[in-house]
Amino acid sequence: MTALLKVLNKLSQIKMESYNDYPDSAKNNAKKVLKWRDEYGDEVKGMTRVGWTRASQLSKGANISRDTIARMASFKRHEKNSKINPDFKSTPWKDKGYVAWLGWGGSSGVNWAIRKLKSIDNK
């Protein structure tokens, strides 16, 4: 029984830990999207409430949990949106996919999350 308690204790510590060592470029990507929202209002689409929360957290350098890092890592499936659609070259804030990609930290944020998740889970 003692071994099980040790494992459960370790798992609870991992869940409570949070991290903010993501790259400045991930923060800057999130800041860009928030700035667009401030400047262009309803023209900026592509983010859910969770996405806006993520962008806000990242832009402030807030600590994020392992679960949040896992969600960021899973955002890799949207990597096709990492480039601006040519139709929106002069108005990137109107490209929903690109907005979402940047709001979740962009390539640097997603790649950091993948590496960080592996590191956390290998502890």
SSE diagram, text form:
Blueprint: H1 2-16, E1 18-19, H2 24-40, H3 49-60, E2 64-65, H4 66-74, H5 96-103, H6 106-121
Antiparallel strand pairs: 1-2
Please characterize this protein's 3D structure.
The protein is mainly α and 123 residues long. Helix content is 63%, strand content 3%. It has six helices and two strands, in the order αβααβααα. It has helices at residues 2-16, 24-40, 49-60, 66-74, 96-103, 106-121; strands spanning 18-19, 64-65. Strands 1-2 form a two-stranded antiparallel sheet. The radius of gyration is 17 Å and the shape is elongated.
A few lines on this structure:
This protein is mainly alpha-helical.
Which features characterize this protein?
123 residues; mainly alpha
> For the residues shown, what is the average pLDDT?
92
- Tally the beta strands: 2
Helix content: 55-70%
SSE pattern, N- to C-terminal: HEHHEHHH
- Spatial shape: elongated
Helix segment count? 6
- Percent range for β-strand residues: under 5%
Question: How does the helix and strand content classify structurally?
Answer: mainly alpha
Biggest sheet layout: 2 strands, antiparallel
Could you name the ranges where pLDDT drops below 50 across 5 or more consecutive residues? none
Radius of gyration: 17 Å
- The separation of the N and C termini measures 22 Å
Spatial sequence of strands, sheet with the most strands: 1-2
